[in-house]
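REQUEST ID: PR-0412
SUBMITTED BY: lab tech R.K.
PRIORITY: routine
TASK: structure prediction, single protein chain
INPUT:
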Amino acid sequence: MIAGRFAAGADPVKRGQILDGAKRVFMKMGYDAASMNDVTREAGVSKGTIYVYFQSKEELFAALIERAKGLFAESIRELLAQSPEPIEGLRRFGHAFARQIFDSEMIPAMRILLGVVDRMPTLCQRFFAGSPTNARSVLKNYLDKHVEAGVFYIDDTSLAASQFIELTAGSFFKGSLFNDYEQRPSDDEIARVIESGLAVFLAAYGRRDRTI
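STATUS: complete
OUTPUT:
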């Protein structure tokens, strides 16, 4: 950045503008039907500008995935940082994950990913990659902290994080992905599933002198 100006391809506002336009296009048209020209029109940028920031449609879609993962992971990180009591932290995590499934564009994006998984396996791998921008990694770090404090007894916190997500949100994720719900589960039903999953998790990994 020189004299208040960003180098080519480095303006975060312009990059965000392109990603916002791309998100609307992909959600409306799907991956295969969408084109870079569609994105330029929706984002209100020139064709030359979009290629300064993203060299291909695949790179653009991958950036959308990373941004969505990063925003969710950061919100989870803040939520857990505000939850020093570990049981309540896990409970809040479960509810946040359920809201992400039911109240965001996570499921439509996953359906788009599934449509291209055979042709672009690395793109789908990036969605599930264990990185700082993955909610599972954030949960693993939270478990590590409380294992060290003696709250949990866990040999493999990465596996335990995956297990907790499966116990509390796995059925919601699969049901939503494959359109198995006629309507969104009630808040009471979501809470019931999360509390059940939390109880199973604590039975396996929690101190025996603690209760929910």
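NOTES: The radius of gyration is 20 Å.
REVIEWED BY: pending
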